[in-house]
Amino acid sequence: MEKKKQYEAFYAGYTYTTPLTYWTATEEVKKRMARVEVSGSKKIPAGGLPIISDGKTAYIDASDGHTAILAASGMKKSLCGFMPLIATAGLAEENMVITDPKGGATRS
After folding, report:
1. Under 8 Å CB-to-CB from 69, ≥6 apart: which residues?
2. Is the whole model's pTM more than 0.70, yes or no?
3. DSSP 93
4. 3-state secondary structure (DSSP) of residue 95
5. Alpha-carbon distance 46 to 62, whole Å?
6. Three-state DSSP class for 59?
7. How far apart are CA 35 and CA 58, in angstroms?
């Protein structure tokens, strides 16, 4: 009677040598995004959420998808997410509807 290997886990056949989740490399992100020059006030070909930017060149998600920005109150979502999106959409002369569901602009 052959003895089974006791040190192998029952899930050994299901393990992976490379991780299933990982951070995408910057160069790979740049390949997938639209590159636009955002310095100055000239028109850009498409607007969208800037994913990578140095203030002069931005790599934006110009797809027709949706983006959710989730964070606790006070975490700079408006400053870091929505203001750059509004700026690129404006430079691309795209239409926008902007709401403030909390009514922050009307607080007394």
Report:
1. 77, 81, 82
2. no
3. T
4. coil
5. 6
6. strand
7. 6
